Amino acid sequence: MTETTVTPTKPLVVEEQETKPGWAGQNVPRKEDKRLVQGQGLFFDDVKRHNMGYVHFVRSPYAHAKIRSVDVSKALEHPGVYGTLTGDEVATLTDPFFQISSPPGAFLKDYCMAVGKVRFVGEPVAAVVASTREIARDASELVEVDYEPLDPLVDARRALDDDAPVLHDEAGTNLTWEGVYEWGDLDKAFAEADRVVKISELHFDRFNSTPLECDGALVEYNRGTGQWTLITNNQFPGFAVIMMGPAMRVGLDKLRFVTQDIGGGFGNKITSHPQLVACCLLARKLNRPVQWTEWRTDFHLSMSHGNERWFLDTEVAVSEDGTLLGFRTTALDDAGAWLRYEPLGGVIWAQVTPGMYRWRHIRLDFKQVVTNKAPVSPNRGYSRMQHLWFTERLIDIVAHELGLDPVEVRKRNYIRTEDMPYETPNGCIYDSGDYAKMLDAALELVGYDSLAERRADAERRGNLLGLGIGSTLDSGTNNFGQSRLINPELQFSGNNEVATVKLDIFGEIVVTLGTTPQGQGHETTASQVVADILGCSVDDVNVRAGHDSYWNSYAGFSGTYASQFAVTGLGAVKGATELLAGEMKKLAAVILGATPDDIELADGQARLRANPEAALPFMALGAIINANNAGLPEDLDVTLNCRYVYRPPFQVPDVERKYGNLTLTYAAQVHVAVVEVDPETGVYEIVDYAAVDDCGKRINPQIVEGQVMGATAQALGAATHETFTYDEDGNLLTPNFYDYHVPHALDMPPLKTGYIESPSPFTSLGTKGMGEGGGAGIHAVCAALQDALRTHGNAIVYDSCNPYHRVWALLSDPDSARARVSVEST
Amino acid sequence: MEASVATLATIRVEINGTAYEREVEARRLLVHFIRDDLDLTGTHVGCDTGNCGACSVILDGTLVKSCMLLAVQADGASIETVEGLAQDEELTGLQQAFSDHHALQCGYCTPGMLMSATALLRENPRPTDEEIRRAIQGNICRCTGYWNIFEAIKAAAEA
Amino acid sequence: MPAMLLREVGYARPATVDQAIELLAGHDGARALAGGQTLINVMKARAASPDVLVDLGGIPQLRGIELDPDGTLRIGPMTTYTDLISSAEARARPILGEVCAQIADVQVRNRGTIGGNVCSSDPTNHLPPLMVAVGGEMTIAGRDGERTVPAKDFFLGVYMTAVGPGELLTRISIPPGRHDGFASIPIGKDGTCIVNAAASANGGLRVALGCVGAVPEVVEPASPEPEAVAEAVRGANLDPPSDVHASGDYRRHLAEVVAARAVRQASERASG
User: Fold this and answer.
1) What digits encode the pLDDT tens for the residues C110-131?
2) C243: which of A333, A728, B16, C145 is 20 to 30 A away, CA to CA?
3) How close A721 comes to chain B (CA, Å)?
4) pLDDT digit string, tens, across residues A767-819
5) How far, in Å, are A156, A471, A666, A756, B39 from residue A704 at the CA level?
6) Chain A interface, mutation test: which of B37, B67, B102, most A Cβ atoms within 10 Å?
């Protein structure tokens, strides 16, 4: 393969919102950087406490087994061991975690460690705490667990067989949740169709984002007050506490979450609550701080796999001219052994039901099953990624089989910019966007016009060249009311995020967020919004790093997940700052003898618009309220400490029709990949790549670009080598970075990026949440491979992950792949 | 005379110009010695098979992964970690370039990346594009996709 | 369950080969510690936990590369990949540095050693097939003295070599030659090899295949033509292992391809 440089060309900005003077829209240097480049970040494992004990979890070597007994006596005798925790204790001290699911999933008894049975290799069975990490590890080998192995269930497609092992007797079945979604008129669509394209099986593979820092916590317990402090990296404390509190039989305020720097989350740090409960119990039992560091292998074995999903018996109704009318499919979702954030995946896909396309007649039978694998949890693109890969596969396979141009088929079927805001068949509102324009931009960036020439050049070198498109949506700011489509008994709806902005006694502006950033630059972008409203410099705005429950600046849904900060977090910041600005003007008005409307905030001062010489520096305002407030009018409602809860405008969805708006904003991504395949080996390289992104108004374009790049890189990993593959005994074959190959620097293709700003009409800043848009890349590579193999067997790509061996299979036995697809004329 | 076998040893190490003398178990990895025993927590652990490079340090002038060495092997060595790069809070050109080019997001791989880049630029002040990529091939990043890291190192080299 | 933390171990840092041999012979569970880029991982996973680690890093005799007048290269086993890549002497047999440069990354190459690579006898390693193809000779020292084992007899099984308990590899000798080739299919750039092959066309044609069995498999094609090479590989009746990266069948096919590529490189150097 020819060597190409990876220097990205300057991003092509196709359309930028008119730039107003101010901080928003600027590439303001990140406040986070100074400490991070000096190694002065504070990650949970950096914190130490006197007398702390280190936890090591004893983990199951079996995928499925009864636990006959757990004997910790020898471990307790090991010098340096402080104590242990077993499943029996846990079952006494705690109640099972709340289950989101309706029956039968509702009956799962999920504790913080295995009780009575293990259901995946790596499941924690006992915990040992000792004076050093090494001793805890040594002593864990002395814990004797007597297992009675059971047959494991590893293939979701076998989960409902009569002879399938049942994981949870309490549920009585492996089908823990099912929902049938149908909108439009399927019969009519299929009757009117000229062709029906049938695809027997498509598979979205199991992987996750493998953040470089694994999970962990340092947990302290205050006996006097019954208060736990968890210094951790959980990225959704709002969710963690509602899981942990009831299970531990304590009020939520007893669980103080403190995070500062987090080494990547990508959704994979949402469901650490079981291990956190174990740590809390141990901290209380042993009366000392307890520290848990998850090692890479532990993480791969047990934490947060992305949903693995099969799309079975799909049928697509198509007109002769390539208009897609509708589809029906069964989505079989493999949730692993426990439902920790599931079955929300069973509805979250519906935020993007039609993908980017205008078909109106859709039926999806969502079946979620449990298997003897690691429990899944949200992974960057959570549940939309799987579904959008699927809709892209349909477009691409239809175009492929009917001999149509995949670019034309997309443009024919894309939702058009003039249709925005667009209501989907299930009542979601796509706010804005111009998909066709994005596709044109991406194709231009990747040099589409020279494709034939490049193909010929590759052929001269003995290689096959292919081009593929992936177009996806990053739906952001969830309406948690969609959980009622999973379980009508649930009492969740809407969403929120909090920010507090205050002016201190010396005029310092201090911002406290409710989020738990893992590199998204929240401190920086928040300061940009604040500085614009208060008329000061970003350097004057101090944003506290991280999250702390004691700041009381968070609400039920606080955290950093689901592509929403630019809407919810910054919406809260805007709201709080506007409140503060209002108060500052009120106070200044009193002091300057004017009305608030006469006051402007600029250059770090509150001054009379008509006479800027009459000015009060922020410090004066802060000092007056905080330290020198005698003589102020009694009814002056000013504290200069403003807390704001942003609440997006949602209604509770219609549970009966499964209809309603599920997310507030819809960022869009169109990616194009060019691959070169060596037909002799199945080895391939991505030789060119373009990513065009539209996330509305960009507060900090450089930060947005960073997210686009990162999501792209993860997509490339997921498309090529990253897979959590199990053997038939339920052993994970890729339990570390040696076997689970993530992209390294030499693996990266040249990257061209482009941006369009279609502001959201629904948000206070015109922003849309973004960051999860990597699914586009996965499909772009799949489609490029399929295109490349056209002349060598014409196989259909049916798996989201295509390592060399799979490409080889497609080359050497294309008929097996092709057998999955048939086209009927009606 | 036979060399002696010891499960515990006193080692002397110089890190960022400061001398340390500590007793360590032979089995203690250098990265844990640096992080847990000496409280230099800028060097990070990201994996357990020596693949991710988050633990990279410069030992006697050579870039190494500190999770793949025992602390006892560093007896008598002079080690540089990320904490030794900036002087009096004045960032090096390389560190500034990382910030300017948004070459870090979560910052977890960053110390290792900086040590790898520092080692490269010391030996090869005008590296080619390929040499830059090879220099950080042993450092995994999950946030940035490496493109901006490459830009930052290139900019620092050209400055 | 594999993790990050080693079992208790004794550590010694001898200053001479004789001291090292005494330590290795005197403790049943003693292992030589070379670069540690494999052994430390093995110990983290607790897949093996030696009682004593004999650190060879302080023995000057085990380092260095000498080029004899007759063109033979004598390489100390504690030579790191980086040392070899930058060695002027080693350029006498260029394939050595070229292959070492493909191994993993800078950090690994700075510590990992030639001796460690061959003594670990991991079927996916680069150097075992290379040593077999170029006809390397391994000098092994023990209490009873020294002996030399040709590379083709050195690799006995997965993680097993002719170096026995109480013995130490002290030198690797490479005969002169410049007509060599190497080809591999790694997972991602410079990643672990799925298959690899080393070829030597220095009078006669010899190909050593890696990753297809417990030890390198040698074939001697009748000619450098791709079809002859493929036929020779097929004639070896390989039964390669299956794993998450490749099935046995896929490896068998890839072996033919990399063998042909390695041979092409070797014969281009022979004619060019």
Assistant:
1) 999 999 999 999 999 999 999 9
2) A333
3) 14
4) 999 999 878 999 999 999 999 999 999 999 999 999 999 999 999 999 999 99
5) 37, 18, 15, 12, 34
6) B102
